[in-house]
Design brief:
The protein has 11 helices and 3 strands; from the N terminus they run ααβαβααααααααβ. It is mainly alpha-helical. The protein has one domain.
Length: 228
């Protein structure tokens, strides 16, 4: 009986879920409306030229379109690689454990600790970030790398007041005062807990729509800007 139940569970199709996001300007809440307004247009391929969070590209992928995601920001490109181009790779518990450990023989840099002290995160959190980014870069699989960076980006954002990096305001998190805004519980939850949560969400977003979906960091000529 248990074997039969296991086979039944394995055969149940899991609907891919786009992960939660805190990026300002994300269209995650608009994708159903967007689809309702374009679904009758005959098209088979789609370019999400300013991909951002990947919400629109992921919606189009779910509807069976061959999607090309593009964004000129490399951290956004990694989101596209993790959630749009990636069709099958996920992060295992063993992967996460390895990422979160400090490994003997590895020379961990102190770039974040030295450059951003007292600006965005506490000292121990800066050390954690230096360690984890180093471990992520050691992954030979580019999709596992991209998934891990996606989870790290989300963890960094949720621990920031206003979800922004616009100014030095660590004191808002650390000062023991009454607050009428924000969520200090979220800010103070350890990075590791957030990282694991967002890895789980990213894993649920990975699926194969049977198409050759791609992520690109830029297209053709670089945009040029002229001062007015």
């Amino acid at each position: 009986m248990q074997a039969i139940q296991s086979r039944l569970i394995e055969n149940v199709a899991i609907e891919p879920q786009f992960p939660s996001t805190r990026f300002q300007g994300s269209k995650a809440k608009l994708v159903d409306w967007i689809w309702e307004n374009i679904k009758d247009i005959p098209f088979d391929t789609a370019l999400d030229a300013f991909g951002g969070t990947g919400a629109v590209a992921h919606m189009l992928k779910r509807h069976g379109k061959q999607v090309t995601y593009n964004d000129s920001l490399r951290f956004n490109y990694l989101i596209g690689k993790a959630l749009i181009e990636n069709s099958s790779v996920t992060l295992s518990e063993e992967d996460m454990t390895w990422i979160l450990q400090r490994h003997a023989g590895v020379q961990y840099p102190t770039l974040i600790q030295d450059t951003f002290r007292d600006i965005y995160y506490a000292d121990d959190e800066n050390m954690w970030l230096d360690q984890v980014t180093t471990n992520i870069r050691a992954f030979p699989d580019p999709y596992k790398q991209a998934l891990a960076f996606f989870a790290l980006f989300q963890a960094c954002i949720i621990k920031r007041p206003f979800n922004l990096f616009h100014r030095r305001n660590l004191y808002i998190r650390l000062k023991d005062v009454h607050r009428s805004f924000g969520n200090k519980t979220s800010w103070d939850k350890p990075f590791e807990q957030w990282f694991r949560q967002f890895v789980a969400e990213a894993n649920l977003a990975v699926f194969d729509n049977g198409r050759h979906d791609k992520a690109r960091v830029k297209f053709g000529a670089t945009l040029s800007y002229r001062k007015l």
